[in-house]
Specification:
By secondary structure, the chain is an alpha/beta fold. Helix content is about 40%, strand content about 20%. The strands form 4 sheets. Strands 1-2-6-5-3-4-7 form a 7-stranded mixed β-sheet, sandwiched between helices. A 5-stranded mixed β-sheet has the order 9-8-10-11-12, sandwiched between helices.
Length: about 450
């Protein structure tokens, strides 16, 4: 990870450590970089945060000042930007969003012409330009100055793409959607309504400050209650920019990304549509997923945490399905990034084709108890590499043996160390997480 760019773009608190000047400089560099031998065309989407408009205008100023044309999708989802970039011939795409973070945070996600996350070496060049002003980028002049184009039609084409994917009508299916007061508010209901579902929607009235607030995939309790109280067949919860999805079955139980991958992966394998009968997971996937996969002959590969790494593995090997426990799921036939609404459509396909409720499909995976604690630290690398912390981690791993595991890693977007333990019961999870966190506190690594 670089100084500004983490695993999911340039993220920070708006006008604190991610400012309008940063956005302008990012725009200046991208407009120049992609426009060295032709007039660059760059498409921009944003989520519903109050600061997203501010950053949109700053990016546009930088892009057009460097001679690029900026195409505006307005409020839309991250996967829609990815889709438009690769199908409409744009040089790159920009999504303004901090995903599941609070409204006062924001981020700049940059995608290449294939709709995938930008190469790390270009991100490093942007950081050098921000800090050192090199290279010296000239301003465009006269007719070379870029223009701004309203491109809301691109979002509509993405909606049409989603509607074209399902093989069956959703008629009479009672579906609940939690749009997290974010990007999904502009897309999700239209898709499900067009497919014939009896769609009920909550948290789809964004006001600029309520995105992700007690709703969406990170606060799924309200959707659980909504599904049960209204007798729905299934519910889907998205995050702020709708690149992830978690599900709720008809009984109100949460079906996380691991179970979604199992349900869809097993179905695709049975259909002969899963290359090498393999799914791609991250090291955070639950031990229960792997045991269920072993039982069914469903193979898997592991990557570092981040859908960027899942996507890289999938593209390198031609795999069809991969994702994260958090709900970032990639269906390579249809997308090159995690897409929450697409994921919900694929879950619907399995339910309809197998004529089984989600509770039955997901119940084949027994999830091991897991406890994750986020520990705020002054320096992530120092905390993770502290010798006494490492000793505590190794001792916990030895004690857990083959019936559990411990994982300690740096957050890609925050000054946080994540300590995760899976074990046979909650008591063991808590015991070993607390042991490692206690050592971090004793070593003076924790800031709050």
């Amino acid at each position: 990870m670089g100084k500004y760019f983490g695993t999911d773009g340039f993220r920070g608190e708006a006008n604190v450590n991610l400012t309008v000047e940063h956005a302008y400089q990012v725009g200046r560099y991208l407009g120049w970089h992609f426009g060295r031998d032709h007039k660059a065309r760059i498409v921009i989407g944003k989520d519903t945060r109050r600061s997203s408009y501010m950053f949109e205008y700053s990016l546009v100023a930088g892009l057009t000042a460097s001679g690029a044309d900026a195409y505006l999708l307005h409020v839309t989802t991250t996967p829609s930007v990815s889709y438009v970039v690769r199908t409409e011939g744009f040089d790159c795409g920009i999504m303004i969003s901090a995903s599941h973070n609070p409204f006062y945070d924001n981020g700049i996600k940059i995608m290449n012409g294939l709709g995938q996350k930008l190469d790390a070496d270009i991100e490093a060049q942007i950081e050098t330009y921000i800090d050192q002003g090199t290279p010296d980028i000239p301003f465009a002049r006269r007719e070379q100055i870029g223009r701004t184009v309203d491109f809301a039609a691109g979002r509509n084409r993405y909606i049409g793409h989603l509607i074209s994917i399902p093989v069956r009508s959703f008629k009479n299916m009672r579906v609940g959607l939690d749009c997290s007061n974010g990007s999904a508010s502009s897309v999700a209901k239209s898709v499900f309504d067009a497919l014939g579902a009896r769609t009920s929607v909550i948290h789809n009235e964004p006001d600029g400050t309520n995105i992700n607030r007690d709703c969406g995939s990170t606060h799924i309790e309200s959707l659980q209650k909504f599904v049960k109280e209204n007798g729905l067949d299934v519910g889907f919860a998205y995050d702020g920019d709708a690149d992830r999805c978690l599900a709720v079955d008809e009984k109100g139980n949460v079906v996380d990304g691991d179970r979604i991958m199992y349900v869809c992966g097993k179905y695709l394998m049975e259909q002969g549509r899963l290359k090498d009968n393999t799914i791609v997971t991250t090291v955070m996937s639950n031990l229960g997923l792997y045991k269920a996969c072993d039982r069914e002959g469903l193979r898997y590969e592991q990557t570092a945490v981040g859908d960027k790494y899942v996507c890289e593995n999938m593209m390198a090997n031609g795999y069809d399905l991969g994702g994260e426990q958090s709900g970032h799921i990639i269906f390579a036939k249809h997308a090159t990034t995690g897409d929450g609404i697409l994921t919900s459509l694929m879950v619907m396909e399995v339910m309809l084709e197998k004529k089984q409720p989600l509770s039955v499909l997901a119940d084949e995976v027994t999830i091991y108890p897991q406890l994750l604690k986020n520990v705020r630290v002054a320096d992530k690398k120092t905390a993770r590499e502290n010798p006494k912390v490492q000793e505590a981690v190794e001792a916990a791993a030895e004690a857990l043996g083959s019936s559990g595991r411990i994982l300690v890693r740096e957050s890609g977007t925050e000054p946080v160390i994540r300590v995760m333990v899976e074990a046979e019961n909650d008591m063991l999870c808590r015991k070993y997480v607390e042991q490692v966190v206690a050592v971090m506190e004793q070593e003076g690594l924790v800031t709050e």
